Amino acid sequence: FSWMPDLRANGAFRVLWIGDPEALPTQGWPLGDGVAYALSAGGVPDVTTLWPASDDGVTGLTADALHLAEAGNSTRLGSELAPMAIRYIVVVDAAGPGRDAPRLGGLPTTAATALAAQLDLKLVSRDTDQLVYENAAWGPGRSRLARDRKRPETVRKSDIVGGVPTLRSEKSPVRFSGRARAGDTVYFAEAASANWQLVVGGRTATGNRALGWANAFTVERGGTATLHYRRSVGRIAFVAVEIVLWVAAFRYLVVSRRRRSQPA
Question: Would you kindly state where each structural domain of the chain is located, as residue ranges?
Answer without folding.
Answer: 5-135, 142-229, 234-264
